Amino acid sequence: MKTTLLKSENYTRSPWKNGGGIFTDIADAHRADAPAKDWDSLLWRFASTPIVTPGPFSHMPGIDRLQMVIRGRGLVLKAPGQDFDEREAFTTVRFTGELAIVTELEAGPVEVVNLMARRGAAEIELVALREPGDRRLPTGTHLLYAACGDCSVRLDDEEFAIPNDGTLRVDLSEASNLALVSGLAVLGSIQLIG
To answer: How far apart are CA 22 and CA 9, in angstroms?
Structure first.
């Protein structure tokens, strides 16, 4: 097990693919052989972003996306033939980057976290841990984001404090037990394929 505390002051910023806003990049991975870290070389990305006005999502062919509102409420994603309801915070929705999506804000601006992965390169999961309890983490990379104040977690027998807006990155070569001790954490999990 390797753990790294990612501090909010070290997060980077980058524009949305369509230029309509700014991501706060928390953690990502790109192909090792890529000449540049860009959308074409992206394997996965965990980021937060405000959505302050209704508008279109970026077109991201080959990318699977998970999204969750962490601040605010009333977000609906409108797509041809279907809607994705994120009116309540900490509800996860899954959609593909090819889908033509336009946001609808029913109660003002929101902030969301996104976990994206190149289809066929990684399997991803995004959940809110709101109640103390245990869960098994498989091998892979796990990101525990303190989205709403400080929180603490236990991995096997070791306890970790995560400050507000901080992220504990956990890289596991074998399965581990995770317990939320206090607060609320957003857990993003990435398992590379192959």
So the answer is: 16
Predicted confidence (pLDDT) at residue 29 exceeds the cutoff of 90: yes
The token duo for 88 is 């309540």
Global confidence as pTM: 0.93
| pLDDT of 63 | 95
Distance CA(115)–CA(189), nearest Å, equals 9
Give the DSSP letter of residue 9: G
Q: Starting at the earlier edge strand, list the strands of the sheet with 133-137.
A: 133-137, 176-182, 151-155, 158-162
Q: Quick one: 84 and 152 in the same domain?
A: no
User: Which residues form the domain of 40?
Assistant: 11-120
Using a pLDDT cut of 90, give the percent of the chain over it.
Answer: 82
pLDDT in tens, 111-158: 999 999 999 999 999 999 999 889 999 999 999 999 999 999 999 999
At 163, which CATH number? 2.60.120.10
CA dihedral 42, 46, 48, 51 (to 10 degrees): 50
